[in-house]
Amino acid sequence: MKVLLSGYYGYGNLGDELMRMGMEDFLKKYKIDYTIALPKRINKNSVSRFNLLEIIGAIFDADAFIYGGGGLLQDVTSTRSFLYYVTTIYISLLMGKPVILFGNSFGPVKRPFNRFLLRRVLKNSKVYPFPRDLVSYRYAKRLNKNTELSCDPAVRYLETIQTLPEKRFEAVLVPRKVENIGKYDLLKKYFEKVTVCPVQNSDVEAAKKIAQRLDAEVVDNPDDIQNVLSIILSSKFVISERFHPTLIAAYFGIPFISLENSKAERFFKKYTDRKEFFAKDLLDFPQRYEKIAQAPLYLKTQMDKECDESFRKLYKILIRIKTLNTL
């Protein structure tokens, strides 16, 4: 059995790298041969995601094509990236190779033609959607009977962390953009010291501006995934404008608030109906802080169970594909 594994891997983004490590752990444990698509080819078991001939060759050699997690099929960030993912899926289907969308979320998709393409992809009987949130699940389930509600693949890696580091940071702020930079000032009322920790390179400049404003320490090397993860795990409170830091916090019971992130709100609906963890703006923080600090989410047991079930279903599908290929 051999698969091509792809996603937004290799860019130093915390969430995507945790998902990659979770997927690779699964494939290695079950001795499934795989090739991984990265920004550039680094060894014989990888291909460049930008080299169409290498991608086609890897699909040809594989029994199945897996997109392993993330909000890939949306056009809010970029129509070009959306078309890239859809095109590679269509290539796989044209070559008769099943596609597994494991731990993905679908949408938002604003352009009518892109919505048409997404529906065509999800309706295909050789596509196996494993959406990680309820909105995506309900949408895909209407189109494809193969749909299974899934975990986020990063949870498989989080399961391997047995001991948490000492709580060294009073609060960690994970920024995304700088709009109305003065709104971050209110954090001084609640925390004597804030550490600003971007989780991808595109957020570093925003992080530096915010840190200067707050006279705070800033992490300027988000490529060091283990260091960034350690900082989040060492925090007593997480304020995040990115999704995966909130997932990490909820998994380990660290108080958190998610800012301006519909992806996080959609994801956590299957675990809780508490609204205080999600805010449109940091200005909503004061009325939520006490509730969050006194009763944080602690979802490790639920997430572990869901993760084990999701990967077990994935393995069954891969075995079924392998069996069909040998007939």
The proportion of residues forming helix, as a percent range, comes to: 40-55%
Instruction: Give average pLDDT, whole number.
Output: 96
Strand percent estimate = 15-25%
Side by side, the strands of the main sheet go: 3-2-1-4-5-6
What is the overall shape?
A: globular
How would a crystallographer describe the biggest sheet? Answer: 6 strands, parallel
Total E-strand runs: 12
Indicate the low-confidence ranges by residue numbers: none
Output the structural class. alpha/beta
Q: What is the chain-wise order of helices and strands?
A: EHEEHEHEHEHHEEHEHEHEHEHH
* Terminal CA distance: 14 Å
What's the Cα radius of gyration?
A: 20 Å
Continuous helix count: 12
Task: Write a structural description.
It is a single chain. The chain is an alpha/beta fold. It has twelve helices and twelve strands. The chain has helices spanning about 15-30, 50-60, 80-95, 110-125, 135-145, 155-160, 205-215, 225-235, 245-250, 260-270, 285-295, 300-325; strands at about 1-5, 35-40, 45-50, 65-75, 100-105, 125-130, 170-175, 195, 215-220, 240, 255-260, 280. The strands form two sheets. The chain has a six-stranded parallel β-sheet, with helices on both faces. Helix 7 (about 205-215) links the parallel strand 8 (about 195) and strand 9. Helix 3 (about 80-95) packs parallel to helix 4 (about 110-125).
